[in-house]
Every structure is written in structure tokens, then in C-alpha cells.
């Protein structure tokens, strides 16, 4: 059975991106899913002075190990002011200090959602441009606009958007080892 990890690039306890990641990962056939929460991997704000005096925090290595011991990654990024949420960027920075190819070429379904009509497209574009340089093997991507209008009771209720996600899930599923 394939092991995938699913998480949101957010630390909100009510994260709409976590809801999307959990939903999407549940659509992958014959996979065990481990849902990760960035709140379980607290890290100090990255800085070279901190790293030189204290080293790399254990939680950065623990999260990186979750990536390395998975067969695939389902990630839904929160968009804050047109970029990654700080909590995600901080984790990303710490992990890159351990392994610059931190995504380990694992198949990745990259997503974003937001309350607005653009659905986190800006942060999705940033990630699609950056992650491949960091070992990111993005095999599918999906943006869910207007979360409150298109997602209810744990699932996408707009059939057209649901079908688009299922196409991306199929690409992701076919890429898993």
C-alpha cells in the first residue's frame, strides 16, 4: 500500500487548506494517508545566527523524515499576502538547510484554496516555480476558488471543480511508486 502524507501550509486550527488536503488525499486509491499538522512541528524563526549557535532544530529533521518515508505528498498552501504563510516558509527554510532537495523527488499534488475567487493561484504559481529546484516532482496541481461556496461537509460540492480535482488525483495516483 502506498503511503502518502497530506498537510496544509498553514497553522490555523480551522485551516481551509488542511480541509482540502485531507479531502484530496482521501480520494487516492489504495493509499494510507498520514495527515500532518504544522503545529506539531514548532520551530524558531530561521536565522543563520540561530543555526550557528543552536544547530538545526529536531522538528525540521522530523518533518523532513516524514517526506522521505512517504511515497507521495499532498500539500495545500495557504496564501498570505500573495505568498507562503510564514509558518510554512519557516519550515521550508529549516528543511532546506538539511537537504536542499527536501522534496526528495516524491510525486506531489500541489494545491491551494482561499475564500476569494482566485483560490490561492499566486502562491501556487510561486511554489510551482520554486519547488522543482528543491527536488519537487509536481505531478498535479489544483486551485479551489471561493472555498465557502464550493466546499461543504468535507467535500467539493461544485461538480466541475470536483472533476478537475479528480483528474489531478489520477495524475498523482499514477505517479506514485
Automatic annotation (TrEMBL):
It is an enzyme of class 1 (oxidoreductase). Its EC number is 1.-.-.-. GO terms for molecular function: oxidoreductase activity. It holds the Pfam family FMN_red. It comes from the Bacteria. InterPro entries: Flavoprotein-like_sf, FMN_Rdtase-like_dom, NAD(P)H-dep_reductase. Residues 3-141 form the NADPH-dependent FMN reductase-like domain. Gene3D superfamilies: 3.40.50.360. Keywords: Oxidoreductase. This is NADPH-dependent FMN reductase.
